[in-house]
Amino acid sequence: MTLTATAPPAVSLRERKKLATRRLLRRVALDLIAERGMVNVTVEDIAEAADVSPRTFFNYFPSKEAALFGSDPARWIELRERIVHDSPGEPALEVLRAVMMSGAETVAEDLRDLGGDPADWLRRMKVVRADPQLHAAHAAQMANFERTITEALAQRLGTDPDRDPYPGLLCAVATGVFRNSMASWTSSGSVPLERFVDLSFRALMAGLPEDCELRQVTGNMTDKKDDH
Predict the structure, then answer these.
(1) Do residues 128 and 38 touch, judged by C-beta distance below 8 A?
(2) Alpha-carbon gap, residue 7 to 12, rounded angstroms
(3) For the domain 71-220, what is the CATH superfamily, name and number?
């Protein structure tokens, strides 16, 4: 049995314009807050730099924190639905691999759409999220994200996540893979993010062998003959 894949629907000109404005607001918010700090940037500052009104800003984001995190509620709904319903009969870890690969492609595309070097945007995001004013908000967002995955896995498996530790363990594995893949992607600059995610999950499913392809593709396998 193979994992299902659906072609994305065509995007209208209006939707493309909305996406462009959303990305512009994120880019400006990241730039300003990385430069000045969270407390020294207002929604009005972001709107002015993006050449839109504060009202337009609030059409896209409820707060400047939301603009920084870039979370789209529709994506969370899609994530949950895919985990629950994709490829009946496939192991949950295999479905997570496919879902996380799709998520990686989306993240990489979002970063590329911000313009410039995606790795540079990732570094700016890390600087911004380290701001004490944002740390708690980011932690809460991640907790909600992990709860969404855990509950979706529990629904797929027909179990209670409060009593069964397995869905939470799978979630911890998946989010750990994604974070590690992001870090590797930032430093590599050559291997696509979704490739890191794919190979990481495959290494897990193979029992984490030392000669896994993940290490080979990054050039981190040493020839044992060199040790002698």
Answers:
(1) yes
(2) 15
(3) Tetracycline Repressor, domain 2 (1.10.357.10)
Measured CA distances, 158 to 38, 87, 131 (Å): 43, 15, 40
pLDDT digits (tens, 9 = 90+) for 28-74: 988 898 888 888 999 999 999 999 999 999 999 988 888 887 666 67
What's the CA gap between 15 and 23, in Å, rounded?
12
The Cα–Cα gap between 58 and 134 comes to: 19
DSSP helix/strand/coil, 165: coil
Query: CB 32: neighbour CB atoms within 10 A?
Result: 21
pTM > 0.85: no
Please give the structure tokens belonging to residue 10. Answer: 């065509």
Tens of pLDDT, residue by residue over 181-210, are 988 887 776 788 899 999 999 999 999 999
Instruction: Report how far residue 125's alpha carbon sits from residue 139's, in angstroms, rounded to the nearest whole number.
Output: 14
**For 13-66, which CATH class?**
mainly alpha
Extract the tokens encoding 148. 């969404």
What own/partner pairs with CB < 8 Å and gap ≥ 24 does 165-174 have?
170/92, 170/93, 170/96, 171/146, 172/146, 173/93, 173/96, 173/204, 174/96, 174/100, 174/149
Residue-range domain boundaries for the chain: 13-66, 71-220
